[in-house]
Amino acid sequence: MNGKLSRHSFAGLEPRRCRLFHGPKRVRGVKTINQLSVNKLCWRKDVAAKFADGQTIMVGGFAVHGVPNLLLDVLVQSAVKDLTIISNGAGDPGVGVGKIFRSRQARKHITSHTGTNPELCKMVSKKEIALELCPMGTLVERIRCGGAGLGGVLLKTGIGTVAEEGMQKLEVDGETYLLAKPLRADIALVHAWKADSVGNLVFRGTSENFNPLIAMAADLVIAEADEIVEVGSIDPDLVDTPGVFVNMVLAESGT
Amino acid sequence: MKSKKDFIATRVARFFNPGDLVNLGIGLPTLVGKYIPEGVVLHAENGAVKYGPAPEAGKEDRDYINASGKFVTLLPGAACFDSALSFSIIRGGHLDATVLGILQVDEKGNLANWTTPGKVVGMGGAMDLVYGARRVIVCGEHTAKDGSPKIVKQCTMPLTGAGVVDVIVTDLCVIEVTKDGLVVREIAPGITIEDIRSKTEAELIFPEEIAVMGADK
To answer: Given an 8 Å threshold on Cβ–Cβ distance, is A138 in contact with B159?
Structure first.
């Protein structure tokens, strides 16, 4: 590690200490060193303390399902602004990720679909918020690249459409592809079905969607769950997102 | 007497055989689900295969929805997964077909169906579907609500995909997109070639043998 290591108090149910690493290139981001032995349970005030103006935040969910509603409430109450929000869709007006647009905390939205949120569409038309559209499958692969240490991914999706604007074209073995570059965030807000205190997550049904992907692609990953369970009660074979990816787990459940 | 939409959906459903993995888009394509043969497996791009009809009132589960955000049930053998895997199914050639709506489709099989100029909406998974699915079937009424043709010489609206459409199904006819152009394969009962020509901007090819659309197999 070539950055400065500093100690930082971490308030959980049983307060422990964890190390924070401030990478040289990231000003706003908070890079944490993760440990599977650390109690990651935390309260709303601990989450609120992580938010800052200008951050890029990934939010899980498809439509208004599998959305981290409790964490979004904390983000709204924090009143931080100039956020870049990355999410699959725009939620409904004032619902799900739509809460962040109603509270006018975002200056940019990177997404695949805004049709369910006419309120946001109006703000985009009035140029109150910048919109970057990306096909859903390309968006999820960009996030996966960001989390998996890949420099990008080659796709055919969108060739010959507006989606190829600004993208580099590459020819490989006679086939033309678009190069989609990785996406990362300062913070990812994840919704799970079950979580334990070391951050192991299990998702349920179609509420899984983007959640396990964004859980790999941010410097600080905060999860909430329908149910917080004892460490050891999740069958290791059934863990969807290993706790190594997760930094904080909200010690509240049910949305 | 079936409505135009049911007539179209019934015809589209007949393309599928038990075991096919199919993704149905929003709107009229969703109606196709009502008529598909038993054993056709439906894929929802938000992360499920083998989903079934909507649950009874009061039995909705917020963790089981389709890509329209509507509650669904899961049939025995169903599976749920994350979005990266879901789009790997689509792009990786594992999806036998997708059924999508039409704003415009042209002689080269270009499809425009995700937005109109100036409208803020987003393409969602439509672009992935048209480039990834092994067969792309588009369906809808033959003309737009104002009577203007949807099957045009060249799309003027933003494209969903270039050269991606295989089959067009409307209330008047079934058209195959070939390298020679748009070939009419079936015509609905009571409809003449002249009816179709007058409501179509694109050049159509009428081969000698054309089946009656909707006739039993």
So the answer is: no
Q: Which domain holds residue A67?
A: 4-11+18-134+183-253
Domain count, chain A: 2
CB-count exposure of residue A122 (10 Å: 0-12, 13-18, 19+): middle
CB-CB neighbors (< 8 A) of B160 in chain A: 161
Determine, for residues B128 and A137 on separate chains, whether the beta-carbon distance falls below 8 Å.
yes
Per-residue pLDDT tens for A171-226?
A: 999 999 999 999 999 999 999 999 999 999 999 999 999 999 999 999 999 999 99
Structural domains of chain B, count: 1
Residue B133, domain member (yes or no): yes
Q: Is residue A173 part of a domain?
A: yes
B144-171 tens-digit pLDDT:
999 999 999 999 999 999 999 999 999 9
Note the pTM of the prediction, 2 decimals. Answer: 0.90
Taking contacts as CB-CB distances below 8 angstroms, the residues of chain B near A63 are 46, 65, 69
CB A153 within 8 A of CB B92: no
A207 in reach of chain B (CB within 8 A): yes
